[in-house]
Amino acid sequence: MESLVQPTKPPRREGKAGKPAKTGASSANKALITRNLRLVYDEIAGEGIPDNMLELLNQLGAKEEKGS
Amino acid sequence: MTVPAAFKTELIELLPSLRAFARSLAHNPAQADDLVQDTLVKALANVERFEPGTNLRAWLFTILRNHYYSQLRKAKREVEDADGRLAARLSVRPEQDGSVDLEDFKVAFKQLQSDHREVLTLVGASGCSYEEAAEICGCAVGTIKSRVNRARRRLSELLGLDKDSDAGFPEPVALQDTASV
């Protein structure tokens, strides 16, 4: 199978007439689902990092490694 | 503990998607963040096992996923059961313009089985390739593809979306543009 680095655009199986594939949702529905998944994602990302996680990460000393 | 600076930076960058992934599995935001916290602790305890240059996201997601399912087995209860039943009482209706309310979307999403929720989040929101999702979920790429298809179809049903909405249906307008993740 071809490289699928663009997961938002899975291989289309629909015909040109816009007939939904047997196995999946229509492309409009796929787009809608992807948009909403990203909205949910953005909402969570927008919350910032909870304090307890930041604390944990701040305990980490970072050693500078040039070029890594 | 000392880790390479690049590792720490990447870890912080990956936290939002790790949290989103946890949220898709756990439903409950507090439980999800506990999962993330546990994952961080495990990851840091095993940081020497991570090979620099390999996929940190897949590594972290795999740790989180394994931890979630082992907890689930330990607890011997299906977390999604209670939530799913609760969610099933709420009806979801698509808007007239073909979009759906985000809260309705969340309700419908919760009704999906966990393997559907996780692939949708991995592939649809976090931008994982099918190959990466397969690595994280420990299954074949083909399995991920068909699971994503089934999950989308099921979610469309739950959202009450018209199967034939491709026929001249306008693009949803109520949603803001989130072209890039």
Question: What is the makeup of the main sheet of chain A?
Answer: none
Strand element count of chain B: 1
Quaternary assembly: heterodimer
Amino- and carboxy-terminal Cα gap of chain A: 32 Å
CA distance, first residue to last residue of chain B: 31 Å
Count of discrete alpha- or pi-helical segments spanning 4 or more residues of chain B: 8
How would you spell out the order of helices and strands of chain A? HHE
Order of helices and strands of chain B: EHHHHHHHH
Q: What percentage of the residues of chain A does DSSP assign to strands (E)?
A: under 5%
How many alpha or pi helices of chain A? 2
Q: What structural category do the secondary elements of chain A indicate?
A: mainly alpha
What helical percentage do the residues of chain B reach? 55-70%
Structural class of chain B: mainly alpha
Number of strands of chain A: 1
The gross shape of chain B turns out to be: globular
Report on the structure:
The complex is a heterodimer of chains A (68) and B (181). Chain A is mainly alpha-helical and 68 residues long. In chain A, 41% of the residues lie in helices and 4% in strands. Chain A has helices at residues 27-46, 51-58, and one strand spanning 61-63. Chain A is elongated and about 50 Å long. In chain A, 28% of the residues are buried. Chain B is globular, with a radius of gyration of 18 Å. Chains A and B meet through helix 1, helix 2 and strand 1 of A and strand 1, helix 1, helix 2, helix 5 and helix 6 of B. Strand 1 of chain A pairs parallel with strand 1 of chain B, so a sheet runs across the interface.
Question: In summary, what is this structure?
Answer:
Chain A has 68 residues and is mainly alpha-helical. Chain A has 2 helices and 1 strand. Chain A starts with 26 loop residues before the first helix and ends in a 5-residue tail after the last strand.
List the helices and strands and how they pair.
The complex is a heterodimer of chains A (68) and B (181).
Chain A: H1 27-46, H2 51-58, E1 61-63
Chain B: E1 2-4, H1 5-26, H2 29-45, H3 56-75, H4 79-88, H5 102-110, H6 114-125, H7 130-137, H8 141-158
Helix pairs in contact in B: 1-2, 1-3, 1-6, 2-3, 3-7, 6-8, 7-8
